[in-house]
């Protein structure tokens, strides 16, 4: 497949933090493919299997976790990139790495750690993912981190406060100047949204916290439900839910492709620099954005804030706070590489953010026994 002129080209990458020889031509891997492979082989990537998406890992074998979520994001992202003639390898690398810095216990853990770090610069999970790939992974003899390409690192850093952006040099400039990342980075962001909205509905129904009757108030669900029932009148249960979700993903992806193509025709970028200095070019149509937003609001109200979910996540958030306080008071309980008094609180946040759900739970009970 030939890439569009405005797609990210690995041969024209802005480079890595530490220079290194290009891959031998006979190996067949370009810079973004190397990034993807480094991410997959990283310790942080393996830990995602035991990090919460919505439901804690021990609550069921069939619920999504951060690893399966990242794989679903990558699949959706690659499919869209192919239709838009964008770089599939870069989209995949960004998608697989975007949650590497996420805390244990999902958003509850993230919010708790941010609260603990309030007086020490806060906690941003996108920035944490960047720290993972730039510094915290220990795999190579010559440098810390994974030494990924600028374009992959740019896509990982989806959000960033101005204060932190000022410390990041070229990588932070777009947040200060109002510029855009590559189209591949923009696409990975939307693939993330499509994936979590739909698999959270699936997991919510599987858990019994959501039901089809409730979902009838969500236009995006009901339209596709009616379409599926018209084609398969006798379909019920898991097959019905799966078929409806499959249809929803299809209409979201189709709208994303068509609206992005429309914007590309309107703005007519010729190069990736045109993309970076232009307006956002990947996105839903106005009507689809409204429907996707309505679905997200439904999930916040009926799933993420469900008493049963909040009860469990409240307990998990408390574990994070207790762990943080303990390590502040007793730094020698930290692993050797995290004990330095220099920026101790940030080192504690690095350590806790890297924990899986089960390891954090184990440490909490060990320290509070």
Describe the structure.
With 369 residues, the protein is mainly α. It has a single domain (29-368), classed as Hypothetical protein af1432, CATH 1.10.3210.10. It has 18 helices and no strands. α10 (183-207) runs antiparallel to α13 and α16 packs across α18 (357-368). It is globular. The termini are far apart. The model has no long low-confidence stretch (mean pLDDT 92).
Query: What's the CATH first level?
Result: Mainly Alpha
Number of strands: 0
Major sheet, described briefly?
none
Q: First CA to last CA: what distance? A: 59 Å
CATH fold-type name: Hypothetical protein af1432
**CATH architecture call:** Orthogonal Bundle
* Poorly predicted tracts of residues: none
Q: What's the structural domain tally?
A: 1
- Rg, Cα atoms, Å: 21 Å
Number of H- or I-type helical stretches: 18
The secondary structure category is: mainly alpha
Protein name: Deoxyguanosinetriphosphate triphosphohydrolase-like protein
Family: Belongs to the dGTPase family. Type 2 subfamily.
GO biological process, one term: dGTP catabolic process
Keywords: Hydrolase
Give the helix/strand layout.
Elements: H1 31-40, H2 43-47, H3 66-84, H4 88-97, H5 106-116, H6 125-136, H7 150-156, H8 162-165, H9 173-177, H10 183-207, H11 212-215, H12 219-231, H13 237-267, H14 272-276, H15 286-304, H16 307-329, H17 344-353, H18 357-368
Helix pairs in contact: 1-4, 3-4, 3-10, 3-13, 4-7, 4-10, 5-16, 7-10, 10-13, 10-15, 12-13, 16-17, 16-18
Domain HD: 66-197
GO molecular function, one term: dGTPase activity
Family: Belongs to the dGTPase family. Type 2 subfamily.
